[in-house]
Design goal:
single chain; six-stranded antiparallel β-sheet; alpha/beta; 24 strands; eight-stranded antiparallel β-sheet; about 600 residues
Length: about 600
């Protein structure tokens, strides 16, 4: 959830770390801090509540010089946002500093033990126990102290540690939280995500669970949890830093909405040959293996879950396989029926979603096959899965997901088509027609809405799934209370919420359900609702009953969720702007949810 940056080299550590944190602020932005080893009696540090810019302004007046340091941008879990609760956390003598992403589940037990031994705590965080544990075990060897400390920790964590007595040394640890290492010329970087270091290097190590990084004497070594040396494979990042910049747009979210045609094109073209045949190179399932599957689960969180709802529809319609969709945070506790004949499809933009990773581990422990849909090469989800589908949407920085969602839907369509061909539930002609229509470019339509305290989305079939994603997007960045309802359920209670003037968005793109949706529109209009319809440009009847209509290009009903979601993203974007919100950084949210 939080962002970590560490640096060892000849540059200004402050400059590198602050620049890196600015690329990670999507991971958390309620406070930020930095600690730099100046080879003095104590670690020099600064940490401030609020956006990174507050820390930057402070450092302009009070710069911290040095070439080895760690930094952190926070999304609060334990303790409210404050200067004291901000990272880095230091021991009592201020000779050791730690930054942490994750949650220490047994921190209260450790804290009580440390207090009994005479340690005092300044913050409300779980992280502070880590630095005191390192202090407790420190006897002149920093990496040994870190190893001893993490043996006592239970939970998820990525750590960066520096100490006064080790002026050219940095120790980093990965356990269930993302961490990468950047390799430069006589310099090294650690970070939670690639954008933080891409300005300086494209050569990286993706760390595995339990691995410990030791940078010392201008050399870097990686060890496993048993202190065995690990030979890591260097990966080269092939996308440019410009892909993670705003490119002239006011906000990342708007840029990423307009990125969607390219994201979909990349996701498609990388897997289509000259004959329009799909080649899912990272999915090795044979016809025989697929026919042996008796149960399919799609498991994800948030927007990815909504993409999974569309995926269920596509797989069942095309491949004729029954599918269940579940929220990752609930999946493990619902006693799912999993065995070696189960296929678990997990969806995660970042590839680091903690609840999704936990669901994967449960399924794998029972012999299930796991297929991952993710946007990040080398992420934890990708490495843990049996099969992988990369969405190639490029870096998505805005907290509210847009292009990752549409790319995930395309991924599901391609997987469904691949399965259908292998199971012979779809003809070659129908296959080709579907792929051709899926390559159509999205036409973005801008629509603003008036300020309102609440709003609703209605839809039927696939349109209800779009409505769910649309409602999530509007509520998470505009803070307008928004709910999605299956239009057929109106008469069963939800119509009681409709009152004069309330905006009701009706998604109407499924031809066989259009007449029923028109009846539902009349029902809410009769109660005073202001209706905005989102419909195919071939459906002229809608404008006769709706107060306003956003028309989108017509395509096959199955493909309409890719098109119909775009105007809903723009509705959320402009509503957020009109209300004076920070579109890219909605309150209380973070991009990558790496804690449960």
């Amino acid at each position: 959830m939080c962002g970590i940056v560490g640096y060892v080299g000849k540059r200004s550590a402050e400059e590198v770390i602050i620049d890196g944190l600015s690329k990670l602020e999507y991971r958390g932005y309620d406070s930020a801090g930095i600690a730099i080893n100046q080879n003095k009696e104590t670690i020099a540090f600064a940490k401030k509540k609020g956006r990174l810019s507050i820390l930057e302004d402070y450092l302009k007046e009070m710069p911290i010089l040095g070439h080895v340091g760690i930094g952190h941008t926070r999304w609060a879990t334990h303790g409210e946002p404050s200067d004291i609760n901000s990272h880095p956390h230091l021991n009592e003598k201020e000779t050791i500093a730690v930054v942490h992403n994750g949650i220490i589940e047994n921190y209260m037990e450790i804290k009580e033990m440390l207090i009994a031994e005479g340690y005092t705590f300044k913050s409300e965080t779980d992280t502070e126990v880590i630095v005191h544990l390192v202090d407790k075990h420190y006897n002149g060897n920093l990496i040994e102290a870190v190893y001893a400390a993490i043996k006592q920790l239970r939970g998820a964590y990525a750590l960066g540690v520096v100490a006064v007595d080790h002026p050219d040394e940095l120790v980093a640890v990965r356990k269930e939280s993302p961490l990468i290492v950047g390799l430069g010329k006589e310099e090294f970087f650690v970070a939670s995500d690639v954008p933080a270091i891409l300005k300086y290097t494209r050569e990286v190590y993706f760390l595995e669970n339990g691995e410990v990084v030791h940078i010392k004497d201008n050399a870097l070594k990686v060890y496993d949890e048993n202190k065995n040396l690990v030979n890591k494979e260097v990966k080269t990042i092939d996308w440019d830093i410009e892909a993670a910049s705003k490119g002239g747009y006011d906000y990342f979210m708007l840029k990423e909405i307009y990125d969607q045609p390219q994201a979909i094109k990349e996701t498609l073209i990388r897997r289509l040959d000259a004959d329009r045949m799909i080649h899912l190179d990272d999915i090795k399932m044979t016809k025989e293996q697929l026919e042996d599957i008796t149960k399919v689960y799609i498991v994800a969180c948030g927007t990815a879950y909504n993409a999974g709802l569309v995926g269920k529809y596509a797989i069942e319609k095309l491949a004729k396989i029954p599918v269940e969709v579940d929220i990752a945070s609930e999946f493990r506790y619902s006693n799912p029926f999993i065995d070696e004949k189960t296929l678990l499809i997990v969806v995660s933009q970042s590839g680091e979603t903690a609840d999704t990773l936990a669901a994967m581990k449960l399924a794998k422990s029972k012999g299930a096959r796991v297929l991952a849909i993710t946007n990040v090469v080398g992420s934890s989800v990708a490495r843990e899965a049996t099969d992988v589908f990369y969405t190639w949407a490029g870096p998505e920085i805005a907290v509210a997901s847009t292009k990752a969602y549409t790319a995930q839907i395309v991924a599901f369509y391609m997987i469904a088509l691949d399965f259908a061909l292998k199971r012979e539930t779809i003809t070659q002609d129908k296959y080709s027609e579907t792929v051709d229509k899926g390559k159509e470019m999205i036409e973005n339509i801008v629509k603003d809405i008036k300020d309102t305290k609440s709003a609703f989305y209605l839809g039927r079939g696939l349109d209800y799934m779009t409505a769910q994603e649309a409602a999530l997007k509007l509520k998470e960045i505009s803070y307008i209370y928004t709910e999605a309802f299956a239009a057929g359920e109106l008469k069963h209670g939800t119509i009681a919420l409709i009152e004069k003037g309330i905006p009701v968005f009706c998604v109407v793109t499924q031809d066989d359900l259009a007449e029923k949706m028109i009846s539902n529109i009349k029902e809410v209009k009769a109660r005073g609702a202001f209706v905005i319809a989102i419909a195919k440009d071939t459906n002229k009847e809608i404008s006769k009953v709706a107060d306003d209509t956003i028309y989108i290009p017509a395509a096959d009903d199955l493909l309409m969720p890719i098109l119909s979601v775009v105007p809903t993203q723009l509705v959320a974007y402009y509503a957020s702007l009109a209300r004076g919100n920070d579109v890219d950084k909605p309150r209380n949210l973070a991009k990558s949810v790496t804690v449960e």
